[in-house]
Specification:
304 residues, alpha/beta, 6-stranded parallel beta sheet, 3-stranded parallel beta sheet, 11 strands
Length: 304
């Protein structure tokens, strides 16, 4: 990273061949990093005596969920892993869904389990998640996994927060001691990301902002690292961003023109030091970290 006026957050290194936006910001390309991670994982998997297996549970016929699940299996297979997609109709009962998750939990050939959300409205999704053993919770979303993350004891970190961290680390952001603002407090992204960034060894000073935060733009302008995960299209604008901040867009809004992020990219890329595209930034990293977690789960299980 060049040492111009837009780099107060600093950078320990910049990968060779990294691209920049028309405004000069470093482009945090999640696609190229995902592909690199998957290739590295494949080499590790090829050296194992048995391949890890990712099992997904898809209930109903929600089209976006079908697309997401196919994508997860594609990259599991590209990493040399086995994968199983277990499906149930939208009419499945809670008992049938719980029986399926329980069977996977007890299957020694299954390394990781993911219950695709959302499940049909008549089902208790939290009860299904609770049946996933912590050592197979490759999405990192069960109560046990979240508790382990809070205590610094978990190895299976929620995939999207882990993907954000991997992007920052790969592209050379200085994190320790820096001010990070996470906008959005969901249990899927905002809360675990705030915990992850503040953990010992990562050492950011984190502010968790949300819809009730007063003077949100002022709070965001304090950030060396600004992450938005609200799903409010183009809600983070130039006035929210301190010159030189690293800006990570996690929020997704689907429109007739395609996928839109929380960050008004064209405005922000002219003031930020680094920025994720949308799409092509954090989304690919979520998948990469799911596959990484599956290998971590396999190693954890076979170290016993």
């Amino acid at each position: 990273m060049t040492s111009d006026a837009r780099t107060p957050a600093g950078a320990s290194h910049t990968p060779a061949g990294a691209s920049r936006t028309p405004g000069g910001a470093l482009l945090l390309d999640g696609v190229s990093l995902r592909n690199r991670i998957i290739a590295d994982l494949r080499r590790e998997v090829e050296a194992l005596p048995r391949v890890p297996c990712l099992a997904t549970v898809l209930i109903g016929d929600d089209r976006p969920s079908q697309v997401y699940v196919r994508n997860k299996h594609r990259y599991a297979q590209l990493a040399g892993m086995a994968s199983r997609n277990e499906t149930l109709p939208a009419s499945a009962s809670q008992q049938e869904a719980e029986a399926l998750v329980t069977s996977l939990a007890h299957d020694a050939n299954v390394s990781g389990i993911l219950v695709q959300q959302p499940v049909p409205s008549h089902l208790d999704g939290e009860a299904l998640l609770a049946l996933i053993p912590p050592h197979k919770d490759v999405d990192g979303l069960t109560t046990a996994s979240m508790g382990a993350l809070m205590r610094g004891a978990g190895t299976l970190v929620p995939c999207t927060p882990l993907g954000v961290l991997r992007l920052l680390q790969h592209y050379g952001a200085a994190i320790a001691g820096k001010r990070a603002v996470v906008v959005g407090r969901s249990s899927l992204v905002g809360l675990p990301l705030a915990v992850l960034l503040s953990r010992k060894g990562i050492d950011a000073t984190v502010t968790l902002a949300h819809s009730r935060t007063e003077d949100l733009a002022d709070v965001c302008r304090d950030a060396d690292i600004l992450v938005s995960a609200t799903g409010q299209a183009r809600s983070i604008r130039r006035e929210h961003v301190k010159p030189g901040a690293w800006v990570i867009d996690v929020g997704i809004t689907t429109s007739d023109s395609g996928v839109i992020g929380d960050v008004a990219f064209d405005e922000v890329q002219s003031v930020a030091a680094a920025i994720t595209p949308m799409p092509g930034g954090t989304g690919p990293m979520t998948v990469a970290c799911l596959i990484e977690n599956t290998l971590t789960a396999w190693r954890q299980q076979h170290a016993r």
